[in-house]
Design a protein that fits this description.
The chain is mainly α. It has a single domain (60-256), classed as Orthogonal Bundle (MetI-like fold), CATH 1.10.3720. The chain is built from ten helices and no strands. It has helices at 2-22, 24-27, 58-94, 96-111, 114-125, 129-155, 159-166, 171-207, 219-226, 235-256. Helix 6 runs antiparallel to helix 8 and helix 7 (159-166) crosses helix 8 (171-207). It starts with a helix and ends with a helix.
Length: 259
């Protein structure tokens, strides 16, 4: 019952954020990057969350920021899956020398703090949408590989796998028809958690000045730019910070409710 509640709550949040991102041009009252002379205004009927230091509507940028966060989060999780799943399947199913080579590499990356590693790589390649997706996906693939490897190790010992081998099934066919389908549920849960991790890490990088370059609306960048004006309009930082937190919570609840 508790898991169902968590999943429904997480799914509701995720669907709501995706809906906001999808209809951002309709919901946003102003162009997100359009500046004006009405700078640092407090919340009013004209600007519900006020304006930033360049006179841009905070609510509009908050709404468009959902697109940026979702693209980076989902894209990074996809990259982690594309890298980590094949490696984990190879190590878990074939074992032997392949597994002996893979395990130390996975352990090495897992031991490194994700934010620090992402920070170092981002400094080297430079901040952009594409680079952030690739960097975060590269940082997160070991966790995905370790999960897939562990499940593959268990499934390869099952009786139906032995029967498939005895029947003459090739390794590729057995992995495709028996191993992978039986771990997809856990992988889907891990993807949701990976999206939440990528979202919060991307926001952290933006706060440190290494995220999406301006003027693109980005929640982490909005928190950073509003930090100096908290006394004038707390919504400049609190609104994007709350949006990031709620989005991360939604994906985490949805993923952690699945076993």
């Amino acid at each position: 019952m508790m898991k169902n509640w968590r999943f429904l709550a997480g799914a509701s949040i995720v669907v709501a954020v995706m809906a906001v991102a999808a209809v951002a041009p309709i919901l946003a009252p102003y162009e997100p990057n359009k500046s004006s002379v009405f700078m640092l205004e407090t919340p009013s009927a004209t600007h519900w969350l006020g304006t930033d230091e360049l006179g841009r509507d905070i609510l509009s940028r908050l709404i468009y920021g959902a697109r940026t966060s979702l693209v980076i989060g989902i894209g990074a999780a996809g990259v982690a899956l594309l890298i980590g799943a094949p490696i984990g399947l190879a190590g878990g199913y074939f074992r032997g020398r392949i597994d002996l080579l893979i395990v130390p590499v996975i352990d090495l990356f897992v031991a490194m703090p994700a934010l620090i590693l992402a920070l170092i790589i981002t400094v080297m390649v430079g901040p952009s949408h594409k680079n952030l997706i690739l960097v975060l996906g590269f940082v997160m693939w070991p966790t995905m590989a370790r999960l897939v490897r562990g499940q593959a190790l268990v499934i390869r010992e099952a009786t139906y796998i032995e029967a498939a081998v005895a029947a003459g099934g090739t390794s590729a066919w057995i992995i495709r028809r028996h191993v992978w389908p039986n771990i997809m549920r856990l992988v889907a849960a891990q993807i949701a958690i990976a999206v939440s991790l990528a979202t919060i890490t991307a926001a952290s990088l933006s706060f440190l000045g290494l995220g999406i370059p301006p003027p693109t609306a980005d929640w982490g960048g909005m928190v950073r730019s509003g930090f100096d004006y908290l006394a004038l309009n707390p919504a400049m930082s609190l609104a994007p910070g709350a949006a990031t937190t709620i989005t991360v919570l939604g994906f985490y609840l949805g993923g952690s409710a699945v076993e």
